[in-house]
Amino acid sequence: MKPQSRENAGGSGFPMLFYKELLRFWRVAAQTVTAPVLTALLYLLIFSHVLEGHVRVHPDHSYAAFLAPGLVMMSMLQNAFANSASSLIQSKVTGNLVFVLLPPITHVEFLGAYVLAAVVRGLTVGAGVLAVTLLFAVPPLAAPAWIVGFAVLGAALMGAVGLLAGIWAEKFDHIAAFQNFFILPATFLSGVFYSIHSLPPFWQKVSHFNPFFFMIDGFRHGFFGQSDVSPWLSLGVVAGCLALAVGTLLVMLERGYKLRG
Amino acid sequence: MRFAIELHSVFKRFGAVTALGGVDLTVREGEFFGLLGPNGAGKTTLISIIAGLARADAGRASVMGHDVVADYRQARANLGVVPQELVFDPFFTVRETLRFQSGYFGIRRNDAWIDEILENLGLADKAEANMRSLSGGMKRRVLVGQALVHRPPVIILDEPTAGVDVELRQTLWRFIERLNREGHTIVLTTHYLEEAEALCGRIAMLKGGRVVAQDRTADLLKRHASAYLRLRVAGTLPGALAARTPAQAGGAYRFRLASFDEVDTILAEVRTAGLHITDLAVETPDLEDVFLQLMGEAHA
Ligand SMILES: Nc1ncnc2c1ncn2[C@@H]1O[C@H](COP(=O)(O)OP(=O)(O)OP(=O)(O)O)[C@@H](O)[C@H]1O
Ligand SMILES: [Mg+2]
Question: Which of B11, B18, B35, B45 gets mutated to test ligand 1 (max ligand atoms within 8 A of its CB)?
Fold first, then answer.
C-alpha cells in the first residue's frame, strides 16, 4: 500500500460511530429494548389495577390512560440516559474508547453520534411501551406534534446527560449511583404517576425545579391537549436544559476532560 | 524535508511523577525509528501525546507537520497507533472491528484493503470470529490491523510483539518492513533489543522521561558498545595481557576491543607465550550493551 497523505481525503467519522452505537444496543435488544418494555408493562398492570377508581386525574379518562403516556416518556428518558452512559463507561473501563479517540472525529461528531443513538434507543423503547399500553387504554391524540417534539428533545437531553455521566464516571458504580440518586427520584417525582395538582403547594413548587416534570407534562399535553403548565413553558425548559447539557459537553470534550489525560 | 514526527521540549507530569521532562525528538519521513527505554521511561506517555490521547503540560508535538492540538484532525488522519494495552470491543467481529475503524477515519468501502490486512496478519480465517473468542496474540494482530485501515503515512507500534509467538513476530515484521519500504514511517517501542537493532535505522533512548541518546543505530553501536574477544587458554597469561582483563574461572578471559585489529595482537602475544588456546569467540557489539551503558550513565 502507498501511504495516503490524508490532507484532503477522509470523510466524516460520524456516520460510522452513530451506526456502531446503534448496533451496540440493537445486538442486545433483549436487554436494551424488550426488558424496559416489560418493566413498563409491570408498572402499568400494578399501578392501574391498584389505583384505578382511587385516583382520577382527568374527568374523562381512566387512570390507565393518564398513566400510559407518563410511562412511555419515563421509559424513553431512562433508556436514552442508559444508552450513552453505559456505552461510554463500558468503553472507558475496557479501554476500547481509544479506538474512537484516535481518529479525527470532532467534538460535535462525537457528541452527535452518542446522543442520536440514545434518541433512537429511547424512541424504540418508547414505541414498544406505547404499543403495549394500548392494550390497556387508548389515550387520545390531541396534538401529535408535541408528542414527537417532547419525545425527541427529552431523549436527546437524557442522552446528553448520559454522556456527561459517562464521561465523568470512572466505574460502573458511579453510573448506578447517578441513576439511583438523580434519575430515578426525579422521574418518580415528576408526575408520571400523578398530576402535581394533587400535591401540597410546597411540593408543587419543588416540582417546578425538576426538568422531568416539564418533559412528562409537555409530552402528556400532546395526548390530552391539557397539562399542568403551558407546553411552551415546558418546551423552553427542556430546550434550555438541552442547550446547557450540550454546551457543557462541548467544553468538556474540548478540554479533554477525563477522556484525554 | 518534512518531519513525520516532531517534538519540542514536551513535558508531562502525573501528580508528583514527571513522566516526560522536556523531550525533543524528530523522526524523518520514511524512517524506521526505535523508541527504547526501561519500564516507566515515558514511551507510552510520549506516544499518547503524539496521538492526542494525552495532553502535554508544555511543549509542542506534530505529525507530518500538523500540530497535534491545533490541527488535530490532520495530525490524527496521518497517524496509525497500535496501543500497548490489549483492548478490544467484545460486541463485534474482527471484520466489523476493522470496518468501524475505517469508518471512523471517514473511509467507507475499504474491504479490499481490509482483506489484504487480514491476509497479511494471518487473520483471514478469523474475519467473522467474535473478538471475545480470539486468543491474546490474535487480538494483538487485530490491534495492528486497526492501526493500518486508513493507510496512515506514520505508524506507531507500542510493544506490538509483547506476548506474541515467534511466527507472528516474523510475519508482523515482514509486513511492517514492507510498509516501510513502500514509504510509511514506522516508530516502534519494544523491550526486545535484538528486534530493534535489526529493524530500526535510528533509535532514541528514553530514561526517566528524558532522551539520553538519539542517533543512527550503527553510530550508537559504534560509540557506546565494544566488541569483545573471549579466550580460554591452558596456562597463565603473561602479565601484560593479564593486566587488560580480570581473570575468570577455568582460564577464560574477555578482552574489550577498541578495534578488530587488536584480535591479531592479542593472539600473537598468546602464541609468543606458548599458550594453547582451547576456545575462542568474538562478540560483536549489540544494542543491549548500548542500552545498559546509557541507562547506567544516565543514572550516575
Ligand atoms: N495515567 C497515569 N497516571 C499516573 N501516572 C502515570 C500515568 N501514565 C503513566 N504514568 C507514569 O508515567 C511514567 C511513564 O509511564 P509510561 O507508561 O509512559 O512508561 P513506558 O516507557 O511506556 O513503560 P513500559 O515500558 O512499562 O510500557 C511512569 O512512572 C508511570 O507510572
Ligand atoms: Mg509503555
Answer: B45
| pTM for the full predicted model | 0.89
Judge whether A235 lies within some domain.
yes
- Name the helix (H) or strand (E) containing B280: strand B276-283
Helix (H, G, I), strand (E, B) or coil at B85: coil
Does residue A1 belong to any structural domain of this protein? no
Name the residue ranges covered by the structural domains of chain B.
1-78+179-223, 226-284
Question: Does this complex have an ipTM over 0.95?
Answer: no
**Residues of B with Cβ-Cβ distance to A252 under 8 angstroms:** none
- For the sheet containing B227-234, what is the strand order? B252-257, B227-234, B276-283
Q: How far is the CA of B198 from the centre of ligand 2 (A)?
A: 21
In terms of CA atoms, which chain B residue is nearest residue A90?
Answer: B89
- Rounded Cα–Cα distance for residues B38 and B40 (Å): 6
Instruction: Quote the number of domains for chain A.
Output: 1
In this predicted structure, the answer to whether residue A1 has a pLDDT above a threshold of 70 is no
CA of B48 relative to ligand 2 center, distance in Å: 10
Task: Kindly indicate whether the domain formed by B1-78+179-223 is annotated with CATH number 3.30.2380.10.
Answer: no
Which chain A residues are Cβ-neighbours of B90 within 8 angstroms? 94
| The pLDDT value given to residue A9 | 57
* Structural domain contains residue A176: yes
The residue type at B62: S
pLDDT of residue B46: 97
